[in-house]
């Protein structure tokens, strides 16, 4: 198939799962065109992300005159379809915090996307997240573009389903993807019952070959690593408070960056934890792999999630996981078997889980690590997930 991926900001350091999905589809012989609204405004440090950026067509970089030209061409090509798409853009805009003007921009972007997809012979467009990308894909479809689908990750989409018009997008889409059964249940809340059969679970995945020879658990004092954007929903502030309660000899490495870094660093200083907590900022996948190898477990203290990629990556790397009972995480992490689950926001429970980790015999920890690896690789092989996604996309339209 010839597939277009329609994305908002791509690539981003925290969204390597999209890159893996695209490359898995390409390994299976499909041709994928990458279309994004804008570039990531930070620095890309992973060579794979840099390579993806070089292959991506950025709509807003085209300039307003190009988008206006394509809009006029779309109007001339199919006046009725263009007016119907404009009415849909206005409908979506009235419900959205983004507003009407931005949805008129989405319409112009959709005109360019539709023309680009026709020229490339694209038979299916796929978007990620429930925000502007599927809106553009929907409008492009109305302007003569290909059929489309989109993946909803959460948690942001579940915070504002009406404002994002998730129901309307699901009704217009050929199908919708959730990354966990929990995510599918949330989409079912906002979809017509008649559309439930077109909501499918397709897991994000890991590349098993990257985890073919996991490092054994290290000897010595226990170390944990947390990976993710430094933002409210990821719960790193709770993690720092919990570290102050941990009685055992335990070191935490925080990988990632974001808007809360200054607050996190200030709390580390206030609690006198500089000797026990290390912040690395964003690092490439090679460094992430090395940090996992040096750790005894991964900790994910999130308040809200979809199904975290870093959890399945840690498990594939044969590391137990301490995580919270949120969203799809309990579908993957099994307490007492592959790690620990604690109530979100519970500092004492999180600290106790880390103390338990720190005092668990090495042999038992290794058993949990092996069980987690088996479970992650069985459920989250990206090639298997890509095959399922391609099957849902179906044959090219005549």
TrEMBL record:
InterPro entries, per database record: Glyco_trans_4-like_N, Glycosyltransferase_grp1
Domain Glycosyltransferase subfamily 4-like N-terminal, first and last residues per copy: 18-210
Keywords: Glycosyltransferase, Transferase
Alphabetized Pfam families for the sequence: Glyco_trans_1_4 (PF13692), Glyco_transf_4 (PF13439)
Enzyme nomenclature, EC number: 2.4.-.-
Enzyme's top EC category: transferase
Organism domain of life: Bacteria
GO molecular function, one term: glycosyltransferase activity
Gene3D superfamilies for the chain: Glycogen Phosphorylase B (3.40.50.2000)
Protein's name in the database: Glycosyltransferase
Organism (species): Sulfitobacter porphyrae
């Amino acid at each position: 198939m010839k597939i277009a991926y329609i994305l908002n900001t791509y690539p981003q350091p925290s969204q390597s799962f999209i890159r893996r999905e695209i490359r898995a589809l390409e390994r299976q012989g499909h041709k994928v065109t990458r279309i994004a609204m804008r570039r990531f405004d930070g620095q890309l440090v992973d060579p794979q992300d840099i390579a993806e950026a070089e292959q991506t067509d950025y709509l807003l970089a085209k300039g307003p005159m190009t988008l206006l030209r394509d809009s006029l061409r779309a109007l001339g090509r199919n006046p009725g379809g263009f007016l119907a798409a404009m009415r849909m853009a206005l409908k979506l805009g009235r419900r959205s915090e983004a507003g009407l003007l931005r949805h008129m921009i989405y319409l112009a972007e959709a005109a360019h996307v539709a023309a680009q997809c026709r020229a490339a012979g694209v038979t299916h467009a796929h978007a990620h997240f429930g925000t502007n990308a599927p809106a553009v894909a929907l409008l492009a479809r109305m302007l003569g573009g290909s059929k489309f689908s989109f993946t909803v990750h959460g948690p942001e989409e579940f915070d504002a389903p009406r404002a994002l018009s998730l129901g309307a997008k699901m009704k217009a889409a050929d199908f919708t993807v959730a990354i966990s059964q929990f995510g599918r249940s949330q989409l079912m809340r906002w979809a017509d019952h008649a559309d439930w059969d077109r909501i499918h679970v397709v897991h994000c995945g890991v590349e098993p070959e990257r985890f073919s020879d996991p490092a054994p658990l290290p000897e010595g004092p226990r170390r944990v690593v947390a990976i993710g954007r430094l933002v409210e929903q990821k719960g790193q502030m709770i993690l720092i408070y919990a570290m102050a309660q941990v009685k055992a000899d335990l070191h935490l490495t925080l990988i990632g960056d974001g808007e809360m870094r200054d607050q996190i660093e200030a709390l580390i200083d206030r609690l006198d934890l500089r000797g026990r907590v290390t912040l690395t900022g964003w690092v490439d996948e090679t460094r992430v792999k090395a940090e996992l190898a040096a750790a005894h477990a991964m900790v994910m203290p999130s308040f809200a999630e979809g199904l975290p990629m870093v959890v399945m990556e840690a498990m594939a790397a044969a590391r137990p996981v301490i995580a919270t009972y949120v969203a799809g995480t309990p579908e993957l992490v099994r307490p007492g078997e592959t790690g620990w689950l604690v109530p979100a926001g519970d500092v004492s429970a999180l600290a106790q889980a880390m103390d338990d980790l720190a005092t668990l015999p090495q042999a038992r920890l290794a058993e949990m690590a092996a069980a987690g690896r088996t479970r992650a690789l069985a459920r989250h092989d990206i090639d298997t997930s890509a095959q399922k996604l391609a099957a849902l996309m179906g044959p090219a339209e005549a």
